[in-house]
Specification:
Blueprint lengths: L2 H13 L2 H8 L3 H15 L4 E4 L2 E4 L1 H24 L6 E7 L1 H6 L2 H10 L3 E7 L2 H9 L5 E4 L8 E16 L15 E5 L5 H12 L6 E5 L2 H9 L5 E4 H5 L7 E5 L2 H4 E9 L5 H23 L11
Parallel strand pairs: 3-4, 3-5, 7-8
Antiparallel strand pairs: 1-2, 5-11, 6-9, 6-10, 6-11
Helix pairs in contact: 1-2, 1-3, 1-4, 2-3, 6-12
């Protein structure tokens, strides 16, 4: 059973006969008849019965028509998906929760407007979990805070993140991080978060030992808890900038060796779908525009935390 035979079969059904099908397909009547006979022989059943001068589907032909429609539609979809100039299909993108909230809304909105036939599946998780999914083939690309040491994958530097220390408004902790000793830290859940590791390593270097560590599944929850006076956290400034209740927080810069972290788009080193190629172009353009804007803007005066 071949696709050409199924195409001929469906054409005969839709046209109501061999003669009209041959005319629509610009083929000889004998060619159409031969293909129908070949299909019947390969399946071992009759597909049509004569009803006067017209052809009528047998029960087997009626069943085959349903499958033929599905197979031919799927074949058309496959042809479109593999064409280099066709941007469609599914794109599985992973990102850290902070990046998804503060960096991706604009580029993804533009991507959706330009390529509405692409179904984007956005998965958020800590960096290490995203890398695990990428290596397992569950993602097509991921934006993470860690390098991937695997020759099968390439990394494209994207956004320069600056981490700042936050606590409730009026709290002295951001300006005096050594006072975090014996207090509560607010961190993203799991050990795979690149920002959390940076925070914990910095406090270890300061010989600061918190009394408790509370884990959260979103930065919005972390900021709300910090504003309520629960504890302090180290978060990207880009996330703080989009938080609606910034007045309820105090924050300060931390040493550059702690603060600056470049996020990376990690993807297969060789094979790229057209959809992924277009998304990479949009993200690269967006990251360059943000970097240019940040370089030209005067930094907001924040205290520099010691250490």
């Amino acid at each position: 059973m071949e696709l050409r035979e199924l195409e001929t079969f469906r054409a005969v059904v839709e046209a109501g006969g061999v003669v009209r099908a041959a005319s629509r397909m610009h083929r000889a009547q004998s060619s159409v008849t031969v293909r129908i006979r070949q299909l019947e022989v390969s399946l071992g059943v009759k597909l049509f019965e004569r009803d006067g001068r017209a052809l009528r589907l047998t029960a087997a032909g009626d069943v085959l028509l349903q499958y033929a429609n599905r197979l031919l539609d799927l074949a058309d979809e496959a042809r479109g998906a593999v064409r280099l100039d066709s941007v469609c299909g599914r794109l599985r993108l992973g990102a850290m929760e902070s990046v998804a909230a503060s960096r991706l809304p604009g580029p993804l909105a533009e991507f959706h407007g330009c390529y509405p036939d692409v179904m984007v599946e956005l998965q958020t998780a800590p960096s290490r979990e995203l890398i695990t999914r990428l290596l397992a083939g569950a993602l097509d690309a991921a934006i993470v805070g860690d390098e991937v040491d695997d020759a099968r994958f390439a990394s494209l530097p994207l956004y320069q993140e600056e981490l700042v220390l936050v606590a409730a408004a009026g709290c002295p902790l951001p300006q005096h991080p050594k006072r975090l000793d014996g207090t509560t830290l607010l961190v993203f859940q799991g050990q795979g978060c690149a920002y959390r590791r940076r925070f914990e390593q910095w406090l270890q270097s300061l010989r600061v030992v918190p009394s408790r560590v509370l884990e959260f599944g979103s930065y919005h929850a972390i900021l709300a808890s910090a504003a309520a006076g629960v504890g302090a956290s180290l978060i990207p400034l880009s996330v703080l900038d989009i938080y609606a209740q910034k007045d309820a927080l105090s924050w300060a810069k931390v040493p550059k060796r702690v603060a600056m972290l470049r996020t990376l788009l990690v993807m297969p080193a060789s094979t790229h779908t057209p959809a992924l190629t277009r998304l990479v172009e949009l993200l690269r353009t967006d990251a360059a525009a943000r970097a240019s804007s940040a370089a030209g803007a005067a930094p907001e005066p924040l205290a520099e935390a010691p250490g």
